[in-house]
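FIELD: query
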Amino acid sequence: MSDFSHRFAVEDVRVLEREVGYQGFFRLDRLRVQHRLFDGGWSEPFTRELFERGDAVAVLPWDPVRDELILVEQFRAGALRGQDSPWMLELVAGIVSEGESDESVAHREALEEAGCQLDRLVPIATFYPSAGACSEQIRAFMGRVVSAGVGEVHGLDDEHEDLLVHAIPRAQALGMLDANEINNGHTLIALQWLARHGEALRRQWLKD
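FIELD: result
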């Protein structure tokens, strides 16, 4: 742990008003807030729209024997811009429902999205992908692969999922990271963690 601490805490924010602006599969809230200022006093009240989509778990499955990562390729509507492909290479991930543990979500999503059985999970990062406008927190894991549906198409029909499962050598995936060919945040974060800690984790998993 570092010795850094934030100047302010949650007690230094006043939520003056909260109303639901939209409720569908996700929710959009409108907040009127004030917060303490670094130079003293309080801010003027201001309004922020907040996208409430719940928290999520993401997992990067890794076969340490073959030294291959399991990633899924899928369409993402948010990437429909310019001439870039809106298909992304990603970790498996899913929303945490009330009462679910992060570990159970990781195992469920690995099986649903990649036909992937895991026998180890290591937590690697907790982060907010876009805290300026979205409340979502993501908890990311590394998962040790027992088996995977490489080359298969997975996903739930009722969620309109269509996911192609890839096995990619770790060196190739890290090369794609360095070449700016990984363009989604949770996969970037997991691969950066792997670049720093992968050798130590692989030695540990191969001994287990």
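FIELD: remark
The mean pLDDT is 95.
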